[in-house]
Amino acid sequence: MSSMEEQAVKIQRSSNLVKGFMALVIIFQVVQFYQTRMLDFGEIAGVFGILFFLRGLLSSPLLLVAPLKHWFKSNLVFSTASYKYFICAFALVVVSLF
Fold first, then answer.
1. Of the given ranges (43-47, 66-70, 83-87), which has the lowest mean pLDDT?
2. Buried b (16+ CB within 10 A) or exposed e, 58-81
């Protein structure tokens, strides 16, 4: 298997893992709503912040392959969509803290 094929397999596996985490976050939120029958908009903002962050990771597939310490080096490029998702995620998490 060539390096490109290995990288594609790693990206696909990581992508599936991130999508699984996204589904898990949504399931936990739905279960909590059915248990309490209350909507906490701060908590919902936090959930959307987490989902936006994970979506930002999916928007730049090379982030899923590169180790965390290499994310901020000059050779790794974030997509414009990732920046937008990360900014929205940060704003929503900040809102959820209040």
1. 66-70
2. bbbbebbbeeeeeeeeeeeebeee
